[in-house]
């Protein structure tokens, strides 16, 4: 299993793309502006998109991806998410005002987009890969995913602040090789982190202490311009953990 990081920033700017992770060549987790790194052929290979939550930085390029491939694919691209998340996409994005309803195009009988409601704790099996949806604690209903294949596992937190649900589920599973977890703001923005339901390094360290596994931990979703400060604060707060900054363009092989 390969994880290609298309976007790992909390914002945009030269060289910065928002959250999108490509598993092998056919599964996308979130569809932020990182999708803009894909070639047309890359886009045509994607069969499944798993959405963590409805915020724009995680779905912004989904409408444009579908528009680029809508008359070139045989089978609909399946968008997986919580019912509330998929409903938000239908009502606020694919509503014929912001963008066409691609679950009806190019033809209602043969659309480019199919919604697949998934509930927390549900596991979706795709070939040898399994994706488990895990609830987290964000400003809108949000989830993370644990992706497993051939005895290896990677987990992605999505956007979240302090919670027990994500860590309890990871601890209940047999192993974890890689953890991709957010730290949106530096510690000076503790109040903002709590209000916006994100981690800062001190909040993240409190939750990482709950994790019984010792994965390689990649820190993602940093506020642009604060990357170095946030990572230095993560290192100071979690000296015993194996930490890396997650960078756009990186490929993690498992
Ligand atoms: Zn968010
Ligand atoms: Zn976000």
Q: Could you outline the blueprint of secondary structure elements for this entry?
A:
Layout (H helix, E strand, L loop, with lengths): L1 E6 L12 E4 L3 E3 L10 H6 L2 E3 L5 H4 L2 H8 L7 E5 L1 H10 L13 E2 L2 E2 L1 E5 L5 E4 L2 E7 L7 E7 L2 E5 L8 H8 L5 E5 L7 H7 L4 H8 L7 E5 L6 H11 L4 E4 L5 E3 L1
This protein binds zinc ion (2 copies).
The site of one zinc ion has 4 residues, from loops.
Task: Give a short overview.
The protein is 24% helix and 28% strand.
Structural commentary:
The protein has 254 residues and is α/β, with parallel strands linked by helices. Strands 8-5-4-3-2-1-16 form a 7-stranded mixed β-sheet. Strands 9-10-11-12-13-14-15 form a 7-stranded mixed β-sheet. A two-stranded antiparallel sheet has the order 6-7. The mean pLDDT is 97. It is globular, with a radius of gyration of 17 Å. The protein has a single domain, classed as 4-Layer Sandwich (Metallo-beta-lactamase, Chain A), CATH 3.60.15. The protein is built from 8 helices and 16 strands. 24% of the residues lie in helices and 28% in strands. It starts with a strand and ends with a strand. The longest helix is centred in the last third of the chain and has 11 residues, at 227-237. It has helices spanning 40-45, 56-59, 62-69, 83-92, 165-172, 190-196, 201-208, 227-237; strands at residues 2-7, 20-23, 27-29, 48-50, 77-81, 106-107, 110-111, 113-117, 123-126, 129-135, 143-149, 152-156, 178-182, 216-220, 242-245, 251-253. The chain binds zinc ion (2 copies). Residues 19, 55, 57-58, 159, 221 line the site of one zinc ion.
